[in-house]
Write a structure and sequence with these properties.
311 residues; mainly alpha; two-stranded antiparallel sheet; 71% helix; CAAX protease self-immunity; hydrolase
């Protein structure tokens, strides 16, 4: 009985071990998405509408899971995962969203210049019906960014670092291991969808791994979820609903641009070299932007200390 207890409970009273605090949200998110996806099959819906139903249902389920996990497993407030409501966080969210869109825009430019993609039509001013569906998908992807960033960055990295440092592993090493592990988990969890879609599994792993690493770096550089959530939202929404790269393969997804894929495999715009190069450029941009932000914050703190009245 004592061995079973030690397997579940850590040394800190009232908290389960870090491994379970990491795995339970991951498994809950995976099962919620799969079950809501299966439930969506019972309705007469196209692929795009099924995506919206699955995303919305999973978001509702994960709101409960996040609350239960934070209160009863972790015993910590949500702000300690990186959820903070402030003007600065909203700015980081907007910047992240813009950077995510920029990454996909670079993908389009690279894919078009290498004859991997052809733009067939586009609109700058959508009609009422298209605009409505664009808003619906935007809300759906906001939900995805919210719960996936909790699962794979806020909860995963936070608890993995705590568990590793409790075993006398230095914090820098523990942080690196946690980042790699969360990135691998993020990549592997997308494999079932790739298999169902008959996609190239290897390319999907590289794509989601690179994106997961980017979101993780953004989280660690800011210690908040606003920037990675914005990046996640921007990439997903731009791929599907702005530039239409994902919509070209998914019936029922509204998009401002309509594109045709003229290359597959390594040169696929949706999961190949054009996207990989753009994501790697995203790493550089995130590192430079966060360095600039941190340097500016340090300068402000120095100025505040210099000009503060003496006792």
């Amino acid at each position: 009985m004592s061995s079973l207890r030690s397997l579940v409970w850590g040394q800190q009273h009232g908290r389960v071990r870090a491994i379970w605090r990491v795995l339970i949200p991951v498994l809950a998110g995976f099962l919620a998405l799969r079950l809501t996806g299966v439930a969506a099959l019972t309705f007469d819906l196209n692929r795009g509408e099924m995506m919206v139903v699955a995303f919305g249902g999973t978001t509702l389920v994960m709101l409960g899971v996040i609350g239960i996990s934070a209160r009863y497993l972790d015993h910590r407030p949500l702000r300690e995962y990186g959820y903070r409501l402030s003007g600065d966080c909203w700015r980081k969210f907007v910047v992240g969203t813009g950077l995510g869109v920029l990454i996909v825009a670079m993908t389009v430019v690279i894919a078009h210049s290498t004859d991997s993609l052809r733009v067939t039509s586009g609109t700058l001013v959508p009609d009422a019906a298209l605009f409505g569906w664009l808003l619906v998908f935007f809300a759906g992807f906001v939900g995805v960014a919210f719960y996936e960033e909790f699962i794979y960055r806020g909860s995963f990295i936070t608890n993995a670092v705590e568990g590793l440092t409790a075993r006398d592993i230095s914090r820098p090493v523990a942080t690196g291991v946690a980042l790699v592990a969360s990135t691998l988990a993020f990549a592997l969890i997308h494999l079932p969808g790739a298999i169902v879609a008959d996609a190239n599994v290897g390319l999907v792993v590289v794509k989601t791994g690179l994106l997961g690493g980017l979101f993780g770096v953004a989280y660690l550089r800011t210690e908040e979820l606003a920037l990675p959530m914005g990046l996640h939202l921007g990439v997903n929404y731009a791929l599907m609903n702005i530039f239409g790269i994902g919509a070209a393969e998914t019936p029922g997804v509204p998009s401002l641009l309509t594109v045709e894929h003229t290359a597959t495999g390594l040169w696929s715009a949706s999961r190949g070299i054009p996207l990989f190069v753009a994501i790697l450029a995203g790493y550089v941009i995130v590192l430079l932007w966060t360095r600039w932000r941190n340097r500016g914050r340090t300068a402000q703190q120095r100025n505040h200390l210099t000009h503060s009245p003496s006792d």
